[in-house]
Amino acid sequence: MLTYLDFEKPIAALDQRIIELRETATAGDIDIEPEVAKIEAKAEKLLKETYSKLTPWQKTQVARHPERPHFKHYVAGIADDFMPLAGDRAFADDPAIIGGLARIEGRRVLLIGHEKGDDTATRLKHNFGMAKPEGYRKAIRLMQLADRFGLPVISLVDTSGAFPGVQAEERGQAEAIARSTEQCLALGVPMIAAVVGEGGSGGAVAIAAANRVLMFEHAVYSVISPEGCASILWRTADKAADAAEAMRVTAGDLRALGVVDRVVDEPLGGAHRAPEEAIGNLKAAILEELDGLAKLDRAQLLEQRRAKFLAIG
Tens of pLDDT along 169-193? Predict the structure, then answer.
């Protein structure tokens, strides 16, 4: 069963009506198809209308949808022969960030990204996609490996932010995030980052300082969560919707500001309604961007990345 968001309740009511009609039809010889077709058309029209005018806060809810594809789904749909590489060679392996070698349509790449998990057990295992210092140090190690062997780096961003716990701070969270961001900027190979869900704070930027930054249509990208911003400015998280509006967290706003380079279309109703289509759209965009970056040499890649981030703001 699809999980409906609060603003999707009218759509949910229509979908439920269709289910009830179909259940009624199985009990007799009633032809309910004309009525079902009418309700389906009404539901699709309402879905289009709803998703054509989402507020920034509603887009935030879509970006956090529990059934939205996660890193493991993108790996399965985009890459061949994915070989995960674990550990930072210093402290531990952090399952909030997964990375490894892969092929995309025959091209050798390094894939890296946040994994949130999709049920209670896996969310706890992956710490809801909130990485600790060893996660970012693993990312650094893998990016250095990619640089050494001339492999393009593809990163998929989906995190509410880096883990803020005491243990992470004790192990140098801020330094690890800064070093990871620095490593992105120092890469002599093409790097493409895609914000596929939430892009939260330094936890996102640490693996997103790329030559090309892509963003899904209903993803969000911000320096702090709307709830965190509201708690600071208004002293209450109840103002999260106002904060999301003020921070300009949506793909359209960030494309206009030059923070992201390309907005990737999602299926009607969000990536969670048609994951395979969403993954296919992202794969096509990544391949196109790889073709463009393949024309640049090491010096040009470094200069392009430097100029891009210096121009922001």
Answer: 999 999 999 999 999 999 999 999 9
Mean pLDDT of all residues in 268-283: 95
DSSP-assigned letters across all residues of 129-161:
G---HHHHHHHHHHHHHHHHHT--EEEEEEES-
Let me know: does 275 contact 78? Beta carbons within 8 Å. Answer: no
Q: How far is it, in rounded angstroms, from Cα 79 to Cα 106?
A: 9
| Pairing label, strands 80-84, 97-104 | antiparallel
Please state whether the predicted TM-score (pTM) of the whole model is above 0.90.
yes
- How far apart, in whole angstroms, are the C-alpha atoms of residue 101 and residue 103? 7
DSSP 250: B
Under the phi-then-psi rule, with left for phi > 0, alpha for psi from -120 to 50, and beta for the rest, what region is 297? beta
**Start-end of H helices in the chain:** 9-25, 33-51, 56-63, 71-78, 120-125, 133-149, 166-170, 173-186, 201-205, 226-233, 240-247, 251-257, 275-293, 298-311
* pLDDT tens digits, 212-252: 999 999 999 999 999 999 999 999 989 999 999 999 999 99
* Residue 294 burial (C-beta neighbours within 10 Å; 0-12, 13-18, 19+): exposed
- Inter-residue contact 278 to 164 (CB < 8 Å): no
For CA atoms 155, 158, 163, 164, the dihedral sign is: positive
